[in-house]
Recover the amino acids of this structure.
């Protein structure tokens, strides 16, 4: 089955700096890669996703890049703000297998220091 | 996007008892999933709830412990049976409107077993 590794487990940045979180996956058939943000006591919220036919996707201050050859994808947050502080999870899914199950990384706790 | 609600939002239960968690969606969805999130941990898929048939369980989860119903395209229940303190966790319902679509999470049920 799919295995998703996520690094780092914790990340502290100064407000205004950039943050990068990296994930690798094992199953070359995976073709959908979402990122979720989970604030304390809240549900995971989908913030951005990318499919295997695209190398990069951007939405305001966040962007995701995908390298299918190397089987890794990354989340980039620019101009970080205190409200970006949360736990971020990457995930991978093989839609073609019919199961559409998401396999999650272990999460990255991002702290943005004012 | 679809609105997902769960009941109860939290509960404190005695060991040996059972709790049924309800997930209601305000529109028909193709796929419904149940996840567990232990304190400070990532999301683990318990099972895929299949409408009109038995749920598909992941390794380590069995029907006797986590019976699931899905009578229609908007509703599902997860029962945590014969609970022990190790079952203390957040249980999350998750949906995809159609296969291959984005996946969203309900607000979760925080369960504490004494």
């Amino acid at each position: 089955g799919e295995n998703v590794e996520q690094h780092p487990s914790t990340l502290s940045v100064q407000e205004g700096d950039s943050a990068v979180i990296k994930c690798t996956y094992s199953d070359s058939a995976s073709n959908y890669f979402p990122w979720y943000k989970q604030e304390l006591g809240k549900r995971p919220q989908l913030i951005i996703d990318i499919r295997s036919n695209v190398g990069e996707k951007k939405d305001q201050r966040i962007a995701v890049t995908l390298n299918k050859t190397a089987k890794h994808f990354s989340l980039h947050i620019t101009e970080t703000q205190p409200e970006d502080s949360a736990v971020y999870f990457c995930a991978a899914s093989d839609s073609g297998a019919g199961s559409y199950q998401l396999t999650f990384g272990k999460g990255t706790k991002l702290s943005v220091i004012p | 996007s679809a609105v997902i609600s769960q009941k109860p939002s939290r509960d404190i239960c005695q060991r040996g008892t059972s709790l049924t968690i309800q997930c209601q969606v305000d529109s028909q969805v193709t796929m419904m999933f149940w996840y567990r999130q232990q304190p400070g941990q990532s999301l683990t898929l318990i099972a895929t709830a299949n409408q009109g048939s038995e749920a598909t369980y992941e390794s380590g989860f069995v029907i006797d412990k986590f019976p699931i119903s899905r009578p229609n395209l908007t509703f599902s229940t997860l029962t945590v049976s014969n609970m022990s303190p190790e079952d203390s966790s957040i249980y999350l319902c998750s949906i995809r409107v159609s296969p291959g679509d984005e996946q969203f999470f309900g607000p979760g049920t925080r369960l504490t077993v004494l």
